[in-house]
Amino acid sequence: MEYIKNRFYEKTSKCITEYQKLKAEHGDKVLANVTIGQVLTGMKGIPALITDTSKLDANEGIRFRGFTLGELRAKLPRLDPQGEPLPEGLFYLMLLGEIPEDEDVANLSKDWATRAHVPQHVFDVIDAMPKTARPMTQFAAAIVSMATESVFQKAYRSGVHKKYYWDFMYDDVMNLIARLPRIAAYIYRRCYYKDKHIEPDPRLDWAGNLAHMMGHDTDEVKRLMRLYMVIHADHEGGNVSAHTTHLVGSALSNPYYSLGAGMLGLAGPLHGYANQDVINWIFELIEELGTEEPTKEQLAGYVQRTLQSGRVVPGYGHAVLRVTDPRFTAQKEFADKYIKDDKLVDLVNNLYEVVPPILGSIGKISNPWPNVDAYSGALLYHYGIKEHSFYTVLFGVSRAMGVLASLVMDRLYGLPIERPSSYPLSWFKEQAEKE
Ligand code: HAX
């Protein structure tokens, strides 16, 4: 499947010159003034990272290489004309900047299937942990333990010229993405199905195989898994999982270390763990209210109690978005189309009516609208994937595609080690008091 790699090089290597020219000729150009407020609120809005794979607009949501989610769901290749696009197609688009043909996607599926063998020691590392270890702990440890396989690391140590780093990085990245479904499914079957593992089926697509190995081998779950893997894949470069992967990679750490670090960021409650928190919070709600079909007044009361107890309402709010997340809408459309009479899905839909006005009325919350995590658990639960402590692993399998595509580009551009400046709090106070 060398042609994908060659095309990637042909297309992206042109940008190396642009990058070098920008650096040499326009290095002094001022992009933006940084306010103390931006620094104190998590560096929001500071243009500081190069990410080509996707761009997030506050009022529109994510665009992958210029395409909205809706456009991609119509344009990317799929197995069934009525089904969801294959994540392989999205990866191709993120990497190359062009919509693939059916054949390209089929080739990528085959390429990943041939790279999917997971070394035994990775399973041994997972098995060394108690089954009660959080699935994200097992997932990140498994990823890091695969660094023994890193061709990038071997090449670096053998003294290869830095202009070829991207080439080895590409192979590591493809191997890594190819193996993630097997690792995720292994953790799933280990934790919840008494170690009764299911072998991969190399004829299946990447997401379909994940559903198969998890033991949810129906067309419906495969369709959901393809949607899930597409919508979670990337959210520009500043989110915690993407930024961490990129930052660790900037030290020329191998992609196994970089992604492992990124996944540990994803495991935080304000990021990817929110997809578990939402379901936990909803089950607590059902327990406290004593009904699976609460009224909107009951829901509003529960939301108020959550806020009064100093907690966040999980699945709502966003650091960049200021509208309902299109990834939420894509899942809602999916549910509206395929799911009838599901109390959990109905409850999630009712929360969508109840929560935003309450959060909006507080005043300090920048975005009262739902994000991707508000819906995903209800869909997985509906289709029988009820083990919510696993949900962030699924997010991680998908997110790997975006952050690793970017990592190959980072090495092709030859991006330097990242090193922003820090100051004591007193320095910021002095700046504030200056004229
Ligand atoms: N419930 C209650 N309070 C909220 C809130 C929510 N859903 N969202 C924001 N706030 C609060 C913040 O905690 C902050 O309070 P303080 O000033 O007291 O510290 C205030 O409103 C201002 O925050 P903000 O500017 O609106 O939001 P941030 O950019 O700081 O944070 C978060 C963005 C997504 C982390 C935030 O909205 C949140 O905690 N949401 C709930 C958790 C969640 O759903 N996370 C997943 C986000 C999507 C994602 O990354 N998925 O992986």
UniProtKB/TrEMBL annotation:
Question: What InterPro entries does its record include?
Answer: Citrate_synth-like_lrg_a-sub, Citrate_synth-like_sm_a-sub, Citrate_synthase, Citrate_synthase_AS, Citrate_synthase_sf
One MF annotation (Gene Ontology) recorded for this entry = citrate synthase activity
> Could you confirm whether the keyword Glycoprotein appears in this record?
no
Instruction: List its EC numbers.
Output: 2.3.3.16
The GO biological-process annotations, alphabetized, read as: carbohydrate metabolic process; tricarboxylic acid cycle
Task: Please verify whether the record's keywords include Acetylation.
Answer: no
- The entry's keywords: Transferase
Q: Name one Pfam family in it.
A: Citrate_synt
Enzyme class per UniProt: transferase
Q: In which pathway does it act?
A: Carbohydrate metabolism; tricarboxylic acid cycle; isocitrate from oxaloacetate: step 1/2
Q: Which PANTHER family match?
A: CITRATE SYNTHASE, CITRATE SYNTHASE, MITOCHONDRIAL
Q: Which family does it belong to?
A: Belongs to the citrate synthase family.
Protein name per the record: citrate synthase (unknown stereospecificity)
Q: Can you name the source organism? A: Mangrovibacterium diazotrophicum
